[in-house]
Specification:
By secondary structure, the protein is α/β, with parallel strands linked by helices. It has a single domain, classed as Rossmann fold (3-Layer(aba) Sandwich). It is about 35% helix and about 25% strand. The protein is built from 9 helices and 7 strands; from the N terminus they run H-H-H-H-E-H-E-H-E-E-H-E-H-E-H-E. The chain has a 7-stranded mixed beta sheet with strand order 3-2-1-4-5-7-6. Helix 4 packs across helix 5. The longest helix is centred in the first third of the chain and has 11 residues. The structure holds S-adenosylmethionine.
């Protein structure tokens, strides 16, 4: 059996497949994938969130092994960070980083059993091929306080394909201050490791819950 990789993750088509892939990937994700590919996206989202004035408590969506919380801490963020992810195995790795308050195994496309008190919502690498589209946004808005800041990476290849522009337009005056910046997902290490994905780009979507 081949090791999990970006192509396998992009090809996921069900929550069951997703659970299986990340159960297999959790142990090697940081050292093999993130280090090997030079995965800079969590740092880009952390920087965007703090640069836009983000505060705690913040919810990390699709927290995985906790790289985004580690990036926030690395930039000096001291507020509370909770995390939600489908994969218990990935969350165990996140727990070991010691950056989080609550860590909850849940599907973000369904209503979340979390308090509606987050002043921010962040996410890296979860709104992408084979993962989550704009159908994930309502449950996140439901746990965000009025004025909460969102900083979410969206793989550039799914922005139109999964219908983000229309979904954001449909949210109307429930959100404000919508902005997009483009960012690399990987650094130069990816070219040797996985040339087919080395140049993949993300859009970092920021907005506030009205
Ligand atoms: C590529 S990983 C990104 C993890 C981490 N944020 C990072 O940047 O390293 C995508 C994560 O999204 C999670 N995920 C996929 N679909 C999900 C869903 N419907 N609800 C919650 N988490 C989901 C997966 O379990 C996985 O941990």
């Amino acid at each position: 059996m081949s090791s999990p990789d970006v192509s396998g993750a992009y090809a996921l088509s069900s929550p069951e497949d997703c659970l299986k892939l990340y159960a297999d990937w959790a142990a090697s994700y940081d050292a093999d994938f993130a280090e090997g590919m030079g995965y800079v996206l969590p740092a880009q989202v952390a920087s965007a969130y703090l640069g836009a004035g983000g505060a705690g408590p913040v919810l990390d969506v699709g927290a995985g092994t906790g790289l985004l919380a580690a990036a926030l801490r690395g930039l000096g963020f001291q507020g509370r960070i909770d995390g939600v992810d489908l994969s218990p195995e990935m969350l165990e790795k996140a727990r070991a980083k010691g950056c989080y308050g609550a860590l909850v195994a849940a599907d973000i496309t369904r209503p979340l059993a979390l308090p509606a008190s987050y002043r921010g919502v962040v996410s890296s690498g979860t709104f992408t091929h084979g993962h989550v589209g704009p159908e994930g946004l309502p449950a996140l808005l439901a746990v965000a306080e009025a004025g909460a800041l969102f900083a979410l990476s969206v793989n550039a290849g799914v922005w139109e394909a999964k219908g983000f522009p229309a979904a954001l337009a449909a949210l109307g005056d429930r959100i404000r201050d919508v902005a997009l910046t483009e960012a690399p997902i990987y650094d130069a290490r990816a070219a040797a490791r996985d040339p087919g994905h080395a140049a993949d780009r993300a859009l970092i979507l920021t907005f506030r819950r009205a």
